[in-house]
Design brief:
Blueprint: H1 2-13, H2 33-44, H3 46-70, H4 77-84, H5 86-106, H6 108-122, H7 125-136, H8 138-179
Length: 189
Amino acid sequence: MMTAALALLLAAATPGAVQDAPPPAATTAAPAGPALAAELVGLLGIDQQLDLTFTSIMPLMTENIAAAIANSGAASVELRASLASEAGRAHIKGVIAEEVMLGFRDRYPRVATELAKAYAERFTEAELRDLVAFYRSPAGAKLLKLQPELQQTLSKVGERIGLEVGMEAIPKAIEKLEGAPPQPESPRT
């Protein structure tokens, strides 16, 4: 599940996000392509984008991990007791967030390498040169500088729309579920 979430986050976090679809044969990059793709990824500031993304989802992640620890038979009685208090839970979530961020940051070079490979597979050398030139231009540099702010704006819009959709969809779903006969349990294999 974490891998899928990371893939979705990476796709959302990168300008001109690349997808996992195979590249068309006509756009295979020339030998200089991988170096240009690596330069492009460097210009995109992937580390900062990933930090922003992971920081924004960290409260949900730490809450889920803390709940998993609380329900884990492997956790000590003392650790589970700490999770029962607000102060203990906050401390534990802070330690979890720190460890998770360190784990993510340790993998940023691998993310950059894999992303550069994806760009090199999907763009020609000429296209990569154009992209690098754009991000080195004043407009491209401004876009990169404003990207975190724009992503926060998008996140806030998404939260608002998500709340609106939830407020509409949940009552409709409850109405449908209350009017529907119960579904029989499927046999377990």
